[in-house]
Specification:
Layout (H helix, E strand, L loop, with lengths): L3 H6 L3 H4 L16 H13 L3 E10 L2 E10 L4 E7 L2 E8 L2 E6 L1 H7 L4 H8 L3 E3 L5 H4 L4 H9 L8 E10 L2 E10 L3 E8 L6 E6 L5 E7 L15 E2 L7
Helix pairs in contact: 4-5
C-alpha cells in the first residue's frame, strides 16, 4: 500500500514549514517570508481537526483524498487508489477500511478474488503497525510529518503574491527545493494563518491538496463486531 500521508507531506509542506521566526499578525502578507511560514507552522500545529481533500501522485500512483481527521484518532472519509476507492473510519485510535472491488483488484493481486469473497461488505481492521492509512486518522501525526524540522533542508522560500482561494485572501509562498522542485503553499492572510491549499507540479510527489473545516466537529461511530473482519481472517 502507498504511504499516503507521506505522499501529502511530499508535496512540499515538510520543507516549507521549517523556517524560524514569527509574525505579529499585522500586515501579514507584508511580513518577512520566514515570519510568514513560521506563523503558519505554529497555527497549523495547534489544529485539533481538519478536512483534507485533493489528489496527489506518488511513485506513479494517483491517490485521491477526501477525509476529515482529529487529534483524537477519529476520521471519516474516502481514499481513491488505482481506480478503486475505500471508505476509511477511525475511532479513538482504531482504524477500519471498507474497500470496493476495484480497490482490491488493484492492490491485492492474485488474492483479490479470495479477499473479496471473504470481506463482502464488512469493514477490515487496519493493523496498528500499518500507518499507510492510520496516520491519516490522527491530525497530530499527520501534521508532525508535515511540520517536522529538517536540519539538512536546502530549500529557499519566496513570496508569490496574494491570491483569492475560495473567497479568502491568501499569501502564496514558493518553496524551491534543489532536489525536488518547487511547491506553493497558500496561507490565510487573516488569523489564524492556516494553509488552505498546497500544490506541486514538479518532482516525485505532485498534485494539489486543500485544507478546510478547521477545528470543526464531526460524528464518527465504530462499526459493530458483526460488521468487522481482521486481516488474518482473510486467509491471504
Amino acid at each position: 500500500m502507498a504511504r499516503i500521508a507521506q505522499a501529502v507531506a511530499g508535496l512540499g509542506a515538510a520543507a516549507l514549514l521549517t523556517a524560524c521566526g514569527g509574525g505579529d499578525g499585522g500586515g501579514f502578507a507584508d511580513d518577512p517570508v520566514d515570519d510568514i511560514v513560521a506563523t503558519a507552522k505554529s497555527d497549523m500545529g495547534k489544529l485539533e481537526a481538519v478536512k483534507v481533500s485533493g489528489a496527489v501522485s506518488s511513485d506513479g500512483q494517483e491517490i485521491e483524498i477526501d477525509l476529515q481527521a482529529s487529534s483524537e484518532g477519529d476520521c471519516t472519509g474516502t481514499l481513491g487508489i488505482a481506480g478503486g476507492s475505500t471508505e476509511l473510519l477511525g475511532v479513538d485510535g482504531s482504524t477500519w477500511m471498507r474497500p470496493d472491488e476495484a480497490f482490491w483488484r488493484a492492490t491485492a493481486g492474485e488474492t483479490a478474488d479470495q479477499i473479496i469473497s471473504a470481506v463482502g461488505d464488512k469493514w477490515v481492521v487496519v493493523p496498528a503497525e500499518d500507518d499507510s492509512f492510520s496516520s491519516f486518522c490522527d491530525v497530530d501525526e499527520l501534521l508532525d510529518q508535515m511540520l517536522k524540522d529538517d536540519e539538512d533542508d536546502k530549500s529557499t522560500y519566496s513570496k508569490a503574491g496574494t491570491e483569492d482561494v475560495d473567497g479568502d485572501e491568501t499569501v502564496a509562498i514558493d518553496n524551491e527545493d534543489p532536489e525536488d522542485g518547487t511547491s506553493t503553499a497558500y496561507i490565510l492572510v487573516d488569523e489564524p494563518h492556516y494553509i488552505v491549499k498546497l500544490e506541486k507540479t514538479e518532482g516525485e510527489d505532485t498534485g494539489e491538496v486543500t485544507f478546510s473545516e478547521f477545528d470543526e466537529e464531526f460524528d464518527v461511530e465504530a462499526p459493530g463486531e458483526d460488521e468487522v473482519i481482521e486481516f488474518d481472517q482473510l486467509g491471504a
